Amino acid sequence: MKGNFERDERGPAGWAERRLPPEGSHASGRGYGPAGPAGGLTPRPRPNPGGPPEGGWRDSDLDRLCGPAAVTAAFAVRPDAVLRLFYTETRKREAGPVCAIMAKNRRPYREVTPEEMIRVAGTEHHGGICAIAVPREVPELGVGPFPKGLLAAPVLPLLDGIGNPHNLGAIARSAAFFGCAGLLLSGDPRQAGLSDAAFRTAEGGLEYLQLMKLANPAIALRALAPKFTTVAAVAAGGVAPSELPRNKPFVLVLGNEERGLPGLTIAACTHRVTLPGSGHVQSLNVSVAAAVLIHAMGMRGSS
Questions:
Q1: No. of H helices and E strands in the chain?
Q2: DSSP three-state, residue 281
Q3: The overall pTM is greater than 0.70
Q4: What is the pLDDT of residues 164-182, one digit of tens each?
Q5: By C-alpha distance, which of 98, 96, 60 is closest to 77?
Q6: CA–CA separation, 183 vs 167, rounded Å?
């Protein structure tokens, strides 16, 4: 299935011919400041909130959602946000239903060669299909009242300084799998934001989470304490998940891959949790630990 493809008016080469920054480079991050995913959570000013900025979207601002799972989730949750769709011959079957949505919305879609797809997606790990979408908004979490969605699940992960976008995506995937409703991102300058790699690794999980940012985790955690049991994940010295109280939903705070959580963030939590292990390996990857903890803490009726 091939659709009408409109060339990008901003360049003679057309959308599919534009080269993107190398994956993982600062220039490939979007929406969180000039340094990309690792550059903090300060959003770029937007003259027209809720819509495109003056002059239209920049390539680097747009979400590139690669792989069947990420594309399918985007069409399920925010189909009107998808601006363009590209797919290779091997993904015709998967592309069929979403191409119909694109046609209904009068948006361009196109079958491309594998070489073109690499240029469109900015990576070889594109899964044969890529949707270009309006960037997700990540509003700031205030001191209350909190969105009802954040209170709807037993565990609310808070990421404080997790710099690898693949870890962010993997945590979002686990969070969505285990029924979390939201994900909080701290203002730590090391904290990864939304990026092509995060969306791809999340396998659609980011679409099903209410994303919010917070400038100061310690202040936010104290504001969240009346509604949540706040728990810091630490490598040692915490209790097992089964020993945590179960009278309120949890905020599970996860820290930087190398340094862990800042002392002020830990001090703002009412509990610390540690996964017991064999002792042969010092610790788990943060995304693996997050998955285990979200599952263990989310088991209702556990003692």
A1: 8, 10
A2: coil
A3: yes
A4: 999 999 999 999 999 999 9
A5: 98
A6: 13
